[in-house]
Specification:
This protein is of the alpha/beta class. 49% of the residues lie in helices and 14% in strands.
Length: 885
């Protein structure tokens, strides 16, 4: 199978289309990229900024250039020897009337040919949670009108700009009091309409509209819409039920993507649905326009293993295939998944011990506890966040599970509810992977552990109920008659635990617990893993064994902050006492901007702590205190990040219950500091000057690790330069490709030039040299062993080193860590004085080799020990390749 040497993630939309991407191909080739990794490119809702709200999986979005544009891009990539990887979305589509399949379901209800394409519970009417109030209130406020939809061909209930199509069978009821001939003909069309002939029906309506006088019909529709009782009656006749958007958590009858009502789950486990959803994707693969696929949110599927086996069978063995899957600590990909790996969130988490030592972490925690008013209890905070998700945000899904469980067990509802809640609270990862025919041994053991943990908080009766539930989830104690219902329960449980974990941890707790923002990352944990560098080496060795061809990410469209913002925060935490002292000083300056609201200060101390970390981590390197325009732009970005953070935290504000006064006070605090307090800005910029170069050193360290550790380095657009972006949508902004594409791979790396480092040119050059090395030795990096190397000597704590070895091929990666104190001390003398006798010991097989540093283009003599004063001359990273290769 052709394995990528590297991938470059490009976010289409937001100014990027196929034509513009074609222009970037020569640059990607010079950089050393082997595969362009494209965000979703299929038709999406109007104005979509990300493409995951697909409206037609078989139409290449015309906004991007359509099929012709995609073929041009594919051919341009091929002409340079590059491949194309597509991000596809098999789990969900947009629950939008722009989606023809969804429109069909809304129009025709359960008899629509697409009614089984979506994961809908047809024991209830289709719920449409898109009103700003209840349906009854909207009727009283005259928010609805009855209209003739001249674009789609049919009658519709209009609510602002949305036209909800009426079931044609209800046309006679709408038009029963009209004497207009056009109305009578339209009513007859409705009586005769069949969903199987939907296109014929809509054409007939359009022909009728275009061929006659509709004025009388329109007057009658307008008169009917003024009758509130009739609108309520008409609503009751439809196969759908309009409802307030806030009711979505309680009353939806379709599976959502996470808690987004505008994204409806697909049933790709059904062969006909799979075929319809993948028709164009498979055609692109067959015609070799696409050489790889990335599967979005694989855990949302009913049976990921079966889906992936079906997909692998359809695309063949020569197509690169990765899945978006968040692995819990110690979790591995299921062995029966025919994939090359994940999209690499776990790789980000694995690097934490390289960039943060244990003492610094606990000192930061102690400082945060002084601000927050008490000790941190992460498990308790997680439990509170998860309980809120269970009882509020996913109340409908939990209620559906309870209904299934109640029918299977006959147990008392309150007892069963408590048992289920504790099981969900105790569940430690995204999901199990039980199938209709049972559960694997590993997942059975996991469920047993969950049962044991849940039992600690349950009464004896509730514990017995939990035991019954877990038995059903494992495929036990269900008779032949109940087997299918038990499989449905298991599937629904598994499709809930993933979204529940993601929303509880990543999208709630990570925004509540701002102790140290660099840890609050997708795939990460709020606790520091034990073992320090040894833990990192163990994870890399495991990665080499389990998924050597998985993507290795440092930034993605889903990460909470750009990789260089995270790197700077790690430098900030290195001296925790100085970090605490600085934040305390800034908070003191900012006290006049704290508002006193009825429910407490705004912002509260914990949010101030978070805000100042964000300012430190994301402050643009070239933003000066006197740059009013730049400060205003940055203030807008920070305010947007803070607003999103407050809503995601779901404490004093929420997406469904916005507290405008609170949010205005907190964002006003930020704006006042940045725009109305020049003394603060000047002091702030001055105080972070030491942090900026230390953060850039950390950025180079995580870059060379990504380039040479097991896995396929994935570069997020612009990440080859300096990435200080906030969480989405900020991280989807278009990079300045005009500057990046001036890159010349043959230029020497200006390690000694602080301006080149600050501008990202050093990092970009390191990426280019590292990718050139990978392109020259693909088998070494694709299949080579991972060998940890030990640093010795006085400054050994500042060194990370490892080798990649395959036969007589070998490379050594050396990178500096904990740079803040290192840079301060190094300024006092020469590199030789600083490093002294600090060295890295080589394995016996490598000790006789001579080396060349591909970054500095410099020979390194063979020796059993590499002295850092000889290797790191004016640089903080080195990539050594055996010279005899």
């Amino acid at each position: 199978m052709p394995i990528p040497v590297s991938t470059y993630r490009l976010q289409f939309r937001n100014g990027m289309d196929f034509e513009r991407a074609v222009d970037l191909v020569p640059y990607l080739k010079r950089l050393g990229i082997s595969h362009l990794y494209a965000s979703p490119i299929f038709a999406a809702t109007k104005g979509s900024t990300h493409g995951y709200d697909v409206t037609d999986p078989n139409v290449i979005d015309p906004v991007l250039g359509g099929r012709e544009g995609l073929e041009s891009l594919s051919n341009a990539l091929k002409s340079e020897g590059l491949g194309l990887i597509l991000d596809i979305v098999p789990n969900h589509m947009a629950a939008s009337l722009e989606n023809p399949w969804w429109r069909s379901v809304v129009t025709w209800g359960e008899v629509s040919p697409f009614a089984r394409h979506f994961d809908i519970d047809w024991s209830h009417k289709l719920t449409l949670p898109f009103l700003g109030s209840s349906f009854e209130q909207a009727v009283m406020e005259r928010a609805f009108s009855l209209v003739l939809d001249r674009r789609q061909g049919g009658l519709a209930l209009k609510y602002f700009d949305s036209l909800y199509p009426l079931d044609p069978a209800t046309y006679p009821a709408v038009l029963s009091e009209s004497t207009d001939p056009m109305a009578a003909r339209l009513a007859d069309l409705g009586r005769q309409a069949k969903s199987g002939n939907a296109a014929q029906f809509h054409r007939a309506v359009l022909d009728l509209c275009h061929g006659g006088d509709c004025e009388g019909l329109l007057r009658d529709l307008d008169a009917r819409a003024r009758d509130a009782d009739f609108l309520v009656f008409l609503h009751s006749l439809q196969p759908w039920r309009l409802m307030h958007f806030a009711e979505a958590a309680q009353g939806l009858n379709y599976r959502r993507f996470f808690e987004i009502a505008g994204l409806v789950g697909l049933r790709v486990e059904d062969q006909s649905v799979f075929d319809d959803v993948h028709e164009t994707v498979l055609d692109l693969v067959r015609k070799d326009l696409v050489q790889g696929l990335r599967i979005d949110h694989v855990d949302g599927l009913a049976d990921p293993a079966a889906y992936l086996a079906k997909l692998r069978g359809a695309i063949g063995d020569d197509v690169y295939l990765v899945v978006e899957k968040i692995l819990a600590p110690g979790e591995s990909l299921p062995e029966d998944w025919p994939v090359d790996g994940t999209t690499g969130y776990e790789f980000i988490a694995a690097q934490v011990p390289v960039l943060l030592d244990e003492n610094s972490f606990f000192a930061v925690r102690a400082a945060y506890e002084q601000v927050s008013g008490g000790p941190s209890d992460i498990p308790l905070e997680m439990r509170a966040a998860k309980r809120q998700m269970i009882r509020v945000n996913f109340a409908g899904e939990v209620r559906a599970l309870l209904r299934e469980a109640g029918q299977l067990t006959g147990l008392d509802k309150p007892v069963l509810r408590n048992a289920l809640e504790e099981i969900l609270l105790a569940f430690p990862r995204y999901r199990t992977y039980g199938r209709d025919d049972g559960v694997a041994d590993g997942d059975r053991a996991l469920l047993d552990d969950v049962l044991r943990d849940a039992g600690r908080s349950l009464t004896d009766q509730e514990a017995q109920a939990a035991h019954r539930l877990v038995a059903l989830l494992k495929g036990e104690n269900a008779g032949a008659a109940d087997h299918e219902d038990a499989a449905i329960l298991r599937r629904r449980f598994q499709q809930l635990t993933g979204p529940l974990m993601a929303k509880s941890l990543e999208d709630t707790l990570f925004f509540r617990h701002g102790e140290f923002l660099a840890l609050n990352e997708v795939g990460g944990e709020l606790e520091l893993p034990e073992g320090g560098l040894e833990h990192f080496h163990q994870e890399m060795a495991r990665r080499a064994k389990e998924q050597p061809h998985g993507l290795s990410a440092s930034s993605t469209h889903d990460t909470k902050r750009g990789e260089d913002a995270r790197a700077r925060l790690f430098a900030f935490a290195e001296d925790a006492s100085a970090m605490a002292e600085r934040i305390a000083g800034w908070r003191q300056i900012a006290q006049p901007h704290v508002k006193r609201l009825s429910d407490g200060p705004a912002p509260e101390p914990e949010i101030e702590w978070m805000i100042f970390q964000a300012l430190v981590g994301h402050w643009p390197i070239d933003l000066l205190a006197e740059d009013r325009e730049g400060l205003a732009e940055f203030a807008d970005r920070v305010a947007a990040f803070v607003e999103k953070s407050l809503r995601e935290a779901k404490l004093r504000s929420d997406w469904n219950a916005v507290d405008e006064d609170y949010e205005k006070a907190v964002t006003g605090y930020v704006r006042s500091l940045l725009l109305d307090h020049p003394d603060f800005v000047a002091d702030f910029v001055d105080q972070i000057q030491q942090l900026i170069p230390a953060g850039l050193v950390n950025g180079l360290t995580q870059t060379v690790i990504k380039l040479t550790a097991p896995g396929i380095p994935d570069i997020y657009q612009g990440g080859e330069g300096i990435d200080l972006s906030f969480v989405d949508p900020d991280n989807r902004r278009l990079p300045v490709f005009a500057t990046l594409s001036a890159f010349d791979p043959d230029d020497p790396i200006a390690f000694a030039d602080p301006q080149a480092l600050a501008a990202g040119r050093v990092k970009q050059a390191v990426v280019g040299r590292g990718l050139r090395l990978r392109n020259q030795h693909p088998e070494l990096f694709a299949r080579g062993d991972y060998v940890p190397l030990v640093a010795e000597g006085e400054k050994s704590r500042h060194i990370l080193a490892f080798a990649r070895v395959r036969g007589d091929e070998a490379t050594i990666t050396i990178a500096c860590r904990l740079p803040l104190s290192m840079l301060v001390e190094a300024d006092k003398g020469s590199d030789a004085d600083f490093w002294g006798e600090t060295s890295v010991a080589l394995p016996d097989t490598s000790a006789v080799m001579s080396w060349r540093d591909v970054l500095a283009d410099r020979a390194i003599p063979s020796a059993p020990r590499l002295l850092m004063r000889d290797v790191l001359k004016g640089q903080t990273v080195a990539l050594l390749v055996a010279a005899k290769m």
